[in-house]
C-alpha cells in the first residue's frame, strides 16, 4: 500500500473530523462518542481493506483480482452492518442524524477506496507493468 493512499485517507478523515467539530459546536448532540467511534472505525477499516485491495490489484489472474476486490467490498459492508447493529442495540438514544451520518461515512469511504483502485489500475495500465487485469 502506498504512502499516498494513507496520507489521502488521513487527510479525508481530518476533513470529516473538522466537519464533526463544527457540527458539535453548533448543535446539541448528546452522543458525540458514537460519531468519533464511527470515524475511527472507517479509518481503520479503510487501512485494512485498502491494503488487501491494493494487493488484489497486483494479482496475476483476473479471478484473484475480482475475488480480492469483491471480498474487500463485502467485508466493508458486513462490518458496517455489524457496527450499526451494535449502535442500535447499545445506544440509549437512537438518533436518525447519526444513522444518516454513518451511511454518509460508508458512502464517502467506499467512493474514496474505489477512486484509488481505479487510479492505481489506470496508472499500471499506462506503465505496462504486466498486470493481467488491464
Query: How far apart, in Å, are the first and last alpha carbons?
Result: 19 Å
| Rough outline | elongated
Please work out how many helical segments DSSP would assign: 4
Helix content: over 70%
- SSE string, helix = H, strand = E? HHHH
Radius of gyration: 17 Å
DSSP strand tally: 0
**What oligomerization state is this entry in?**
single chain
Q: Mean pLDDT, as a whole number?
A: 83
Unreliable runs = none
Work out the strand percent: under 5%
Q: Which structural class do you get from the secondary structure elements?
A: mainly alpha
Could you explain the architecture of this structure?
With about 130 residues, this protein is mostly helical. The chain has a domain at about 35-125. The chain has helices spanning about 5-25, 30-55, 60-90, 95-125. α1 runs antiparallel to α2 and α2 runs antiparallel to α3. The relative contact order is 0.14. The mean pLDDT is about 85.
